[in-house]
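User: Look at the shape:
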Amino acid sequence: MDVRLLLPCLVPVVLALASPPKNTAPQEATHAVEWTDPAGDVHPGSTSGGERPGRDVVKLALRSDGTKLTIAATLNAPPTGDFASDVVRVYIDTDDDPQTGAATFWSRKPGFELLAKLYGCVRYEGGSACSGGLTGSKVKGYYAVADLGRFKSDPINPEQVISAMDAPAVPIQGALVSASLSYADLGVKPGQTVRIVARESDGPFDATADFPEVALTLK
């Protein structure tokens, strides 16, 4: 039994969003980019069974190899517990045009066609989950997947391109949570430059959870 979307994490209702930031030139990177992030800047997640610790990302790397884009997040500690959730969210502007596409939810940066999410998933006896969990079930291990959505008519919720349930599972090695998306699914080509804003999923409920905006030229 696979119940990967059983208990989504609850977040506060947002009554107002910040104004769009002033335009600033993104960081430029070729083939790969890496950032560090302070430990201890995450909030706990609320679930029907109470709070669970946030997934604390201390390093994030995006790497391209000519066929795929890999999202690799290093946590402050290896995953524990029986609750699964996304770790990093990655907004991708594939046409390098801020006038087309959706805005990032918290920082309101415009122009993104795609939203990818990197999940830390849990495998149990009798099932698995990438969001939520099987309360009281014995945990057998942890793995990562990356899903992908494309913004079309809804500026908040993208239409699914790859679901977490269908994405290839990658075993989590220690504190490293990593998964890849193919160029074909992203709709990009080698040598293309894409604009990216990534964010720590359990970071503060504001723009400070964003990593610096980057213009990444793919290998």
Observations:
- Residues 129 and 210 are 26 Å apart (CA to CA).
